[in-house]
Amino acid sequence: xxxxxxxxxxxxxxxxxxxxxxxxxxxxxxxxxxxxxxxxxxxxxxxxxxxxxxxxxxxxxxxxxxxxxxxxxxxxxxxxxxxxxxxxxxxxxxxxxxxxxxxxxxxxxxxxxxxxxxxxxxxxxxxxxxxxxxxxxxxxxxxxxxxxxxxxxxxxxxxxxxxxxxxxxxxxxxxxxxxxxxxxxxx
Length: 187
Prior knowledge:
The protein is an alpha/beta fold. Helices cover 47% and strands 13% of the residues.
């Protein structure tokens, strides 16, 4: 079985390439996260609905040039890179450190409306459900403790596999959407 090394680039090198000419930079975070802050020149293609074929078709004849993928810290962008590699496109580069590193380096960003991060939403909902299961288990019926156990098992699974079902569900909630008629997220 052939393994493909994922190419990476640091934010300062990518910013220099941007200054030299057009760079295809896609951000795979949720639309709300993208609206809050994103690297200058990035376009939003959320990871949960990322279609490599659609992205490549939208590149207007520049398919031979590298495609750079960014997220908040580099984790989701590496998953996005894997989707492109699995689709047969190997000229794709993961941006090390993501938007957080981009902002910390003082590089230009676009800012929009602030929102509660998806990670924070997951912690709020998980904490509420664990507390609810414990309270109901104590006062109503001991079987409700299974709710707390289920959430705990889900958090362990998320940590082990680096995928979060609750996060994916919350990302689809109306308050986490901000797309306009063109399918892009307005700042």
